[in-house]
Amino acid sequence: MKVSGFTFLRNAVTNGYPFEESIRSLLPLVDEYVIAIGTSTDDTLNRVRAIDDPRIRIIETCWNESMQDRGYVYGQQKMIAQFNCTGDWAFYLEGDEVLHEKDLDAIRNAMYDNLTDIDVEALYFDFLHFYGSVDQIGIAGYRRAPRIIRNSIRSIAPDGLFFVVMEKNKKGRYPKARFANAQIFHYGHARRAEYTKRKLEQVGKYWGRNTTDFNHYGNIDCKEIRDFSGSHPAVMTSWIEDFAEKNFEIVANYKPSLKNYRNRLRFWLEELFGIELSKKHYRDLE
């Protein structure tokens, strides 16, 4: 079994991503790591080179600045890296996502166990989306998503988040997937607020949005936050000390929106019936 890792990066230093930690957390599982690095104004390219691992293959890219439709430029960059993978499995990990060392054996076993079952097109993970602090998670968004895709099927990435299998030339669907028996730790909204503000100012245009009004994480419904008491990946120790947000506080006069109330209803139903109703970009084979 050959495993490819892949991701894309640009200005990851300036924007406070734990990208070096992310890369190092996945390296024990892969035979090659393909990284598309867009033209940056910081030291991202040199930092990746300095990891100095022969499995890392860098592709220097130029982003399409005129592509401002629903984040598709992210999909373009993701596919540049994905289409250069040569493994049986292609493992996508974003620059703010990290694997816990305790899960590596389970992930490796899941890839081995499903390698010859051609019905399994992907493996999905539980997600921990840290929000405003590394001591709490947000639960309003997706909680499970595929990050490993079988590299012999026709798949594309409409944006950076998910995969679409092109079963027919003009018709796509989400991949059929099994659980990888592991978690992905997502720190993008736990870095210091000034990094998130800087990042949003740079990339909002790719989504056709004005995101310059972000100043802190506190503009959120308190019902969407849950405490986290588990352990973080060991590779994240220094980043958490140096880059994580330490001053989270919910806006005192925050007024829940209609969307917030819909989420509250969903949370209540989940707790009442023991089900999970968040958006899923896969078909579960379990």
Number of domains: 1
Count of helical segments? Answer: 7
| Proportion of residues in extended strands | 25-35%
Write down the oligomeric state. single chain
Q: Pairing-aware structural class of the strands and helices? A: alpha/beta
Computed CA radius of gyration, to the nearest angstrom:
19 Å
The CATH topology assignment is: Spore Coat Polysaccharide Biosynthesis Protein SpsA, Chain A
| Element string (H = helix, E = strand) | EHEHEHEEHEEEEEEEHEHHE
- Largest sheet at a glance? 9 strands, mixed
Low confidence ranges: none
CATH hierarchy class name:
Alpha Beta
Q: Calculate the terminal CA-CA distance, rounded to whole Å.
A: 23 Å
Q: Averaging pLDDT over every residue, what do you get?
A: 93
- Helical coverage, percent range: 25-40%
Shape descriptor reads globular
What's the count of strands? 14
CATH architecture grouping: Alpha-Beta Complex
